[in-house]
Amino acid sequence: MLIGYLALTGLFLQSGGSEDRFLAIGRAFMERIGHASANESFRFHRDEGGVNVNAGLKSVTIHPEDGEVILYTDAAFLPLRLDAPRRDPLWATAEEAKDALTALARKMGVPASWAIQGIAVSHDAAVEGRVVPGAATIHLGERVNGRRFLRGGNNARIQVDPYTGTPFWMSITRNSVTQGSTPTLTESQAVERARVELGPRWARLGLGELPDIRSVELGYSPDRFAWRERARTDLGIRLRPVDCFLAYEVQFHSDKDVFVVIDATSGRVLNLGYSDPLSSSG
Question: Domain 178-280 falls in which CATH fold?
Answer without folding.
Answer: Nuclear Transport Factor 2; Chain: A, (3.10.450)
